[in-house]
């Protein structure tokens, strides 16, 4: 990994666990998701350094690499949120590698909550920084917090051509088969934009139409 191990002064973990996680993601996802996931780690780690937050690089890396795995075709029939599918896949992977349960819990939580703004930032560093990396790469939140040279180094290693359109396409295809999982979360916006006939769940109507008699 000599040519990809450092970007902006951040080292990608070069451990057996990290290498096997990388291979799994390479085997199961597209180039789009692979490069995005690597950027999420690098941007998350850069944000951690900027905020002076200590974190476990290996756990952060696994969380970043698995965070969008649940968009894949093998999970389309799960009936669960894609975040949970990715989190469960990471948990199985980590248990197979005898990672302690506290580390597994952190990774699971980081993946499961990475599309739930306003909560991860108050949790363990790995949880906070997976979300920070996702928000940076997808939404541009904190864009100017990272030095232009560091940002350019990350993108040079993991380019993002036409990324905005392509990641929205990936979200749409990953979630279209289970639209009910978008209730109360940001992915309802995606299907509303890109899937004709989609109707988002309505929280107020759900309460008013509940089986309670009053």
TrEMBL record:
Give the top-rank taxon of the lineage listed in the UniProt record for this protein: Bacteria
Pfam families named in the record = HD
Q: Do you know which SUPFAM superfamilies this protein is assigned to?
A: HD-domain/PDEase-like (SSF109604)
Q: Which residues form a coiled coil?
A: none
Q: Which ranges carry the HD domain?
A: 34-121
Identify this protein by name. Answer: Diguanylate cyclase
């Amino acid at each position: 990994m000599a040519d990809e191990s450092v970007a902006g002064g951040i080292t990608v973990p070069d451990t057996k666990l990290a290498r096997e996680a990388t291979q799994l993601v390479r085997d199961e996802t597209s180039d789009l998701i692979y490069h995005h996931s690597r950027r999420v780690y690098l941007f998350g780690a850069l944000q951690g350094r900027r905020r002076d937050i200590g974190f476990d690089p290996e756990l952060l890396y696994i969380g970043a690499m698995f965070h969008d795995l649940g968009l894949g075709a093998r999970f389309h029939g799960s009936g669960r949120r894609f975040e949970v599918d990715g989190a469960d896949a990471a948990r199985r992977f980590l248990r197979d590698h005898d990672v302690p349960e506290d580390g597994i819990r952190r990774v699971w939580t980081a993946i499961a909550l990475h599309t739930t703004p306003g909560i991860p930032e108050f949790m363990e560093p790995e949880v906070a920084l997976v979300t920070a990396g996702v928000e940076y790469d997808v939404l541009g939140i904190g864009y100017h917090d990272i030095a232009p040279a560091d940002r350019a180094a990350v993108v040079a290693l993991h380019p993002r051509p036409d990324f905005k359109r392509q990641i929205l396409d990936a979200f749409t295809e990953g979630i279209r088969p289970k639209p009910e999982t978008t209730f109360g979360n940001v992915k309802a916006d995606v299907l509303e934009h890109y899937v004709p006939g989609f109707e988002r769940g309505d929280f107020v109507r759900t309460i008013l139409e509940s089986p309670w008699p009053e």
